[in-house]
Design the sequence.
């Protein structure tokens, strides 16, 4: 019988899996966007390093600040 409020090992694995995916998906999307577009100077390398080292925070920074730095063709 399952009681309310009890969390088992399977539920913990599901919760950590969801948290992991929510953290990794924006990072992957940001890296793909960075690599597909052109930037001035070394901005592309800088944004790749920021996203890789800061993960979710780096991806959020890229989407807020970095997308405006792309060269529009």
Sequence:
């Amino acid at each position: 019988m399952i009681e309310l409020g009890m969390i088992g090992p399977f539920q913990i694995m599901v919760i950590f899996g969801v948290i992991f995916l929510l953290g990794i998906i924006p990072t992957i999307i940001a890296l793909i966007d960075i690599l597909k577009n052109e930037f001035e100077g070394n901005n592309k390398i800088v944004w790749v390093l920021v996203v890789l080292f800061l993960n979710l925070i780096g991806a959020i920074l890229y989407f807020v600040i970095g997308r405006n730095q792309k060269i529009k063709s």
The two ends are 62 Å apart (CA to CA). DSSP finds two helices and no strands in the chain. Helices lie at 9-36, 43-64. The chain has a mean pLDDT of 89.
